Amino acid sequence: MPDYIEFFIELLGPEHCFNDEQSLEYYSHDHTENLRFKPSLVVKPKNAEEISQIVKFCNEKNIPITTRSGGTGLMGGALPINGGIVLSVERLNKIIDIDTQNFQATVEAGVINFQLQQALEPYGLFYGPDPSSWGSSYIGGNIATNAGGLRAVKYGVTAAAVLNLEVVLPNGEIIWTGANTLKNSTGYNLTQLFVGSEGTLGIITKAVLKILTKPKTDITLLIPFHHLEDSAKAVTEVFKSGLIPCSLELMERNALEQTLLHLEENSISLQKNVQAHLLINFDGNSHEELLPLMEKTIDVIKHYPTEEIYFADNEIDKNRLWELRRKVSEIVKLNGYTIEEDTVVPRAKLPDLIKFAHQLAEKNNMKVVCYGHAGDGNLHMRFNHPEYKNSYQNPNINAMLKELFEYIHMLGGTISGEHGIGLLQKPFLPIVFSKANLLIQKNIKKAIDPKNIMNPGKLIPD
Amino acid sequence: MPDYIEFFIELLGPEHCFNDEQSLEYYSHDHTENLRFKPSLVVKPKNAEEISQIVKFCNEKNIPITTRSGGTGLMGGALPINGGIVLSVERLNKIIDIDTQNFQATVEAGVINFQLQQALEPYGLFYGPDPSSWGSSYIGGNIATNAGGLRAVKYGVTAAAVLNLEVVLPNGEIIWTGANTLKNSTGYNLTQLFVGSEGTLGIITKAVLKILTKPKTDITLLIPFHHLEDSAKAVTEVFKSGLIPCSLELMERNALEQTLLHLEENSISLQKNVQAHLLINFDGNSHEELLPLMEKTIDVIKHYPTEEIYFADNEIDKNRLWELRRKVSEIVKLNGYTIEEDTVVPRAKLPDLIKFAHQLAEKNNMKVVCYGHAGDGNLHMRFNHPEYKNSYQNPNINAMLKELFEYIHMLGGTISGEHGIGLLQKPFLPIVFSKANLLIQKNIKKAIDPKNIMNPGKLIPD
């Protein structure tokens, strides 16, 4: 039991401070590989004012603070690797305002993404970012990692939806970063500096988000390609034709196969000669609007050998397909593919990337499965090795990843499209950033958090 | 003649260094009110390597560097208020690559916005941001101010189009800020930190920009409202109906009247009972696609008293209308309205803002004319006073602006939507940012430019 526990109990009440074994174990891990790091204490404040008090105290006593949102992170951003306190924002769970005149929602950091979507539904509105984890990930964590999602192709990643943030700084001051406006050229863009900063610069407590009118209808196409490389090439062709899908996902055979085996019911029969699927969604305000988009898609695809295209236009079929896609990562992990990468390249480089990933895995006696947001050039890869369950501090795996990331950098890509850097990708930043660039990042961290109390050991290489 | 001129002549050649009176006079002003500040020397390097040498020298000798792009700024960002050198990027004028597979363009900082648009045209592509100044403003300056434009409603401001930047840092190091990808959660978002930093953190030399498929057709509606307030209210109604215009501009009567008088030919007859116009553009791939959008717009507007709506669907008529809109600022300035503000509020607050601006002007014995990007809540206001031509260091005008900005802040808005802070808006930042916020901005500046050689005296309050 840390000697500073009395302070937190007095501030928050004993019912919001936890140092029992079960709690420490629960907050020692998230969705990152099989890693565990126990904190000394878990605290659950209810608002920015309490967080400000906590931060001031920790700043004075040099206690590391690891902020935790929904705990769905994959890169170790929320793991308390240096002990100290885990600060969970789960009690900051209020949707403060839905402004249907200005198309803005103000929410606390602990609101679950899907809860916000549901709250907007009755107004005919929606919030763009929809990470696969939307059923449990929090808006605060989405912002801290600049989470993407399935419809980022059309509606952008989290960065595009964040207008203004309330943040508790490492000195305990509470600030708003910007203004509640669609445009803003007023000072340095602190809002976007905090987006994706993974709890290393401060604690996000509230956000003003841009919301949108929800299109009245949508349609989903599942296209089974005979050749994996063709599916990746077709992605570029879709955009060159002028189509703007709402989502454009790629799942290679192995991803779909594993996922189908775990689902109780499904309507997909996987043909033997199919190597990959594209899952495409178009949204719009009428069936008449969507019809020509479907026709155009078919026109683009017809040059490639495929099985019959499956169309889903009713809610049950569509939900089944998208739930399937959302579950891939989780199920593939259960099957032993514990190491997930979040590669991103210029879209037309996808065929090269997929080819390289398979060659690399084979060379390293591993299996790999690729899936993800092909429309954004953002491909997830999960690796499976008979002996290794983690990449963390594994020199063999890390040597392989280094080779992968060097290739990606050569393609104009980078090492994370939407998951962040956290603990696991930190050693690889020098592959994609020059020394001079990293020095700027370090100096920014030092300028804002000089005592390095905010999520120490994450994002910035040592 | 400064004593360090020999260094620059040796580095760049005498044909790229200027200290004659005419050059110093030319580079002493841009489009900011009637302000003039002469530099000691004007230099025109040709690439990042030369700029790196210049910056290293200036860093050592403590020589202020004011970077200049197209010289169309309105807030004094490019004025060399502390002397030193003006570094013009006009020779960095190459479009390096148009990547039609990945929808990216790589350009040097001195490329004129409209030249890029023209270069993309043959490929059926376009670059979203289209500030009114696009005929002469440079991409580098657009990025440094996070410029907006007429189609920002649909396609976003400059920030949304910038994927990666080459920057010369204050220590002379050349870095790339990010990656050439649509998504990126890799480290702090240095790219967006440099967007809108107005030359205070480094010199942008190259940019990788997101480009888009150009819609095949578009249509413009000019709607003459009897009441100014109705026009502002209708803006909100358009978005609530689910419509997504490409542009949605407001011009109050006075703005249009003054502009029409200066144009040689026009097809608009301004009816006596009209107080404001909305100018709306929809783009799409077919006339059939646009027709229902027009009908819906008419349906939304019909609740308000208007004169007959004017439709422009041929190139000549459309260009005439949009050229008219683009010329408003320039012509209104010629007519003595020298003080331009760049207010931005949550969209539905526009009626309140317009009303307040007129009351405030009247109270201060001034005239005001409002126009701008109503679809984004971004309203330009030009003020005219019989005695004062500048707001700079004018206590009476600044007292009025303070009142305006305090009101805007109260509405959830801020003091610049797309022009930046530069010299003129700097004193007003404490209205919209707390002390703790401004301290973070100052510390970031200090962390990146510790000797304060990059555009000193701009953006950050003293």
Automatic annotation (TrEMBL), chains A, B:
Q: Does the keyword Oxidoreductase apply?
A: yes
Q: Which domain of life is it from?
A: Bacteria
Q: Which UniProt keywords apply?
A: FAD, Flavoprotein, Oxidoreductase
Q: GO: which molecular function terms?
A: FAD binding; oxidoreductase activity
Q: Does the keyword Protein biosynthesis apply?
A: no
Q: Which Pfam families match?
A: FAD-oxidase_C (PF02913), FAD_binding_4 (PF01565)
Q: Provide the coiled-coil residue spans.
A: none
Provide the cofactor list for this protein.
FAD
Q: What name appears for this protein in its UniProt entry?
A: Glycolate oxidase
Organism listed in the record: Apibacter mensalis
Question: What lineage is on file?
Answer: Bacteria, Pseudomonadati, Bacteroidota, Flavobacteriia, Flavobacteriales
